[in-house]
Amino acid sequence: MHFDLTEDQKALRDVLVSMFEKRFGGAQGVEAVADTALDRELWAEVSELGLAGILVAEEHGGLGMGLLTLSVVAEVLGTLRCPHPSLPMPSRPGRSAPPAATRCAKSGLAACLAET
């Protein structure tokens, strides 16, 4: 099997490192762990990148990317010890999506997430 990252995956990794390092690198990360409130600005940025639909098929409004791309995202979040959830349950392998998530995927994931 071929597990080298594509240029798009490398570019995604670089964007995520830049975005999350500003928010969770160094002392900011320690402060973020103490703050348990939902970070709506972070969720808006994550949604804008389309990460919420990384495994959702394109015909349902997602990115339609595979597990290797999801692992790129997970690696960045783990490396920076991101204390906030950045991927919704439907993106997590091995879990089934709840009906509301399926409905969101079909009706436009970004719009649905913006309502929450």
The CATH topology comes to Butyryl-Coa Dehydrogenase, subunit A, domain 1
Tally the structural domains.
1
Largest sheet: none
Q: Please give the share of residues in helix.
A: 55-70%
- Give the oligomeric state: single chain
Helix/strand/pairing class, anyone?
mainly alpha
Gross geometry: globular
Question: Can you walk through the features of this model?
Answer:
- The chain is mostly helical.
- It has one domain (7-115): Butyryl-Coa Dehydrogenase, subunit A, domain 1.
- 56% of the residues lie in helices and 0% in strands.
- It contains six helices and no strands.
- Helix 1 (7-24) runs parallel beside helix 4 (67-79) and helix 5 (99-107) packs across helix 6.
- It is globular, with a radius of gyration of 14 Å.
Summary tags:
mainly alpha, Butyryl-Coa Dehydrogenase, subunit A, domain 1
Question: What's the SSE blueprint?
Answer:
Blueprint: H1 7-24, H2 27-34, H3 40-49, H4 67-79, H5 99-107, H6 109-115
Helix pairs in contact: 1-4, 5-6
What is this entry, summarized?
The protein has 116 residues and is mainly alpha-helical. It has 6 helices and no strands. The protein is globular, with a radius of gyration of 14 Å.
